[in-house]
Specification:
The protein has ten helices and no strands. It is 77% helix and 0% strand.
Length: 244
């Protein structure tokens, strides 16, 4: 990988996103809108419904949005022939994926900062731990979504096929991450599967930050980061120049 080339790719992606206003709006506005809708649903209900669900959703929403946008955008580069032209230049697959990861990582930081800021400042989300830790976990989850999106784009031929990976890779993680049922009370086999899924550790980290004033989440963050790096490496190994 060449740092200069990687940064050039990242700059190119950011310019494209800036020109695509609908995608930019989806990336930056949708997470805030979903969190606001959730707060509105629970506003007049007794109990801590919003505060109980919001931390987990701050982990899930950036992951889902970045997975969809990254997988479709990367596939579009290949189907349009842009990727083949880029790789004909002095540009390696690692530079291409690294540039995309940097660009979407920057977008993920802004996206997560907005969602966390809206939730804590305007929607009265009360967390025991420091707010900046919420942001760190949310950003890492969004980066994980981007990394998995880059990886699965290699196996799709059309944008529709890229979206079909959503129920295959994302929905099972949402069901088994502990959002609906605590992972410790899942049937044994499902608990084993849950322990192998990155979103489980992302939700665990968010839950610890929301409930503990001094949360110990380095292990969870390390696992989520490890999954993201592994997805990028696999993406570089499987990336094709064009769709068959």
């Amino acid at each position: 990988m060449n740092a200069r080339t990687t940064l050039a790719v990242a700059g190119r992606v950011l310019i494209q996103l800036r020109r695509d206003r609908r995608t930019s709006a989806m990336l930056l506005v949708l997470p805030c809108a979903v969190m606001t809708l959730l707060w509105w649903m629970f506003e007049d209900l007794p109990g801590a419904g919003f505060s109980a669900l919001a931390p987990a959703l701050l982990a899930l929403i950036p992951f889902i949005v970045m997975f969809l946008v990254t997988s479709v955008t990367t596939l579009r580069e290949r189907t349009s022939g842009t990727l083949e032209r880029l790789l004909a230049m002095p540009l390696g697959k690692g530079d291409f994926l690294g540039g995309y990861a940097l660009a979407f990582g920057a977008v993920a930081t802004v996206q997560s900062a907005l969602a966390v800021g809206v939730s804590t400042l305007f929607l009265d989300l009360d967390v025991a731990g420091p707010t900046w830790l919420l942001l760190v976990v949310a950003v890492l989850d969004a980066v994980l979504g981007s990394a998995l999106g880059l990886f699965v784009s290699a196996f799709a031929r059309t944008e529709f096929q890229a979206v079909q990976f959503m129920p295959a890779l994302v929905v099972p993680q949402i069901l088994l991450c502990g959002l609906f049922v605590d992972r410790s009370v899942l049937p044994g086999f499902l608990e084993v599967i849950s322990n192998c899924l990155p979103l489980s550790y992302a939700v665990d980290a968010m839950t610890k930050v929301s409930e503990d004033s001094d949360p110990q989440i380095l292990g969870d963050l390390g696992l989520v980061g490890g999954f993201a790096v592994a997805a990028l490496v696999l993406g570089a190994l499987t990336l094709r120049r064009q769709s068959e």
